[in-house]
Amino acid sequence: MQVYISVDMEGVAGVVHVDQTRRTGADYERARRWMTYEANAAVTGAFEGGATSVLVNDSHGDMRNLLLDELDPRAEIVTGSLKPLSMVQGIAPGFGCALFVGYHAGAGSRAGILDHTFFGRVVARCRVGGRDFNETAINAAVCGALGIPVALVTGDQTVCAQAREILGEVETVQVKEAITRYAARSLSPVAARERVREGAARAVRRAREGAFSPFRPALPLDLEIDFVNSACADAAELVPFTERRSGTACGYRAPDAATVVQVIEAWTILAASTMV
Could you say which residues bind Zn(2+) 1 here (predicted)? Predict the structure, then answer.
């Protein structure tokens, strides 16, 4: 079975502050090492569970965070940006399941470490079909359109709960308990890696047994984003077929999940250009 792994940073054990997640931060180098080692734990677990090959996508920020010299050599890596499918670039028919490692709660969540959806500086809330959708849901829908189920989500207790609510039968591994947006009770990085390894092995074994179903929300997909201010919405409205729904909200009727990702990318890049 081919296994796909998307790795973010905010949900990694020990990470609680933007100083750890931004390249300019004093603690960034340490956090990217924790991220790399949790990715390795997922790779190891995937092979233990029966994977024949593993593709890892660096899904955080500028998507050049994983330390490639320290990445498990059995895995291939998708690195850098822009990527047309962003956090699930490289997903394709033939993969048996996807694992989402180091994920975080969606924008506007309570007790979610560094909660946001795609670009927190400009996105206040994201909905699809009138329902709050976080990155787990949107990326799972892209995978689901190709017939690929998400088998594992790891992070804090809030993203794990959101994953179960959205995806139903999915393995989750909680590596920390968010207290507020910037504080958590966390496993040590070493202990977290062991939990992730075990969870990945269990998830892949279950995927091989057909335990998970692809996430396929009904089409078309009505995307709506509340931006942090009207200037962001002004910029997003430049994308053709965007519907301005209020002073700060834009909507888009997308034919599929891949289009949702691309519209969000275009909107947020344009919106970010207005930030001063």
Answer: 8, 10
pLDDT tier at 113 (50, 70, 90 boundaries)?
A: very high
Q: Can you list the domains of the chain with their CATH numbers?
A: 2-115+135-208 (3.40.50.10780)
Among candidate residues 223, 225, 112, the one with its CA nearest the CA of residue 161: 112
Q: pTM value?
A: 0.97
Name the binding residues for Zn(2+).
Answer: 8, 10, 60, 104, 135
116 tagged catalytic: yes
Per-residue HEC secondary structure of the chain comes to CEEEEEECCCCCCCCCCHHHHCCCCCCHHHHHHHHHHHHHHHHHHHHHCCCCEEEEEECCCCCCCCCHHHCCCCEEEECCCCCCCHHHCCCCCCEEEEEEECCCCCCCCCCCCCCCCCCCCCEEEEEECCEECCHHHHHHHHHHHCCCCEEEEEEEHHHHHHHHHHHCCCEEEEEEEEEECCEEEECCHHHHHHHHHHHHHHHHHHHHCCCCCCCCCCCCEEEEEEECCHHHHHHHCCCCCCEECCCCEEEEEECCHHHHHHHHHHHHHHHHCCCC
Of 32, 83, 116, 195, the active-site residue reads 116
Given the structure tokens 């890696």, which residue do they identify?
A: 193
